[in-house]
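Archive transcription. Copying these from loose printouts into the bound notebook so they stop getting lost. Printout 1 of 2:
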Amino acid sequence: MGKKTIGTCELCARGNVETTVHHLTPKEVGGTFLPTAQLCIPCHKQIHSLYTNDELGARLNTIEDLRNDIKIYAFIKWIRKQPPTKLIKTKKSHERRKKR
């Protein structure tokens, strides 16, 4: 994660939160100069704990695609109810751990 700013998360829509730049297509799979999104730190961490860079680049490279994915949907619904200062812990999903 790079430079942090205060703003609105483009994924969960919480405002007045610390955000970072998320490459919608990861740089590792060719997304260096492709679109980015400002995401709160919890959403950014959760995305990278659930999905591989290949998966993000192939099928989850827009905010709408991410919002509509079943694996992140419940997290977004939950995080929207949390205060901006909430610290969360993330673990890699069981599926993601198996892919290594």
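Printout 2 of 2:
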Amino acid sequence: MAISTEKIRDLIKKSFPQADIEIVDTAGDSNHYSAIITAQEFRGKSRVEQHKLVYKALEGAMDGSDGILHALALQTKIK
């Protein structure tokens, strides 16, 4: 299965409405992405906690063999 850049952005925006989000389909196959997310919600959180917040925002899109998003290289920043 595959997921679009727009769908990933929409899922993240629901949890982080004021975030700056940059998403790139790194392999051109709608399965391998990189994302840079800059959000206020990351303030005071460790990098692991920040990434967990993003994974939660993806609403299961990366959950094991049932996930529709195969790979996401994630970089988070504080706004």
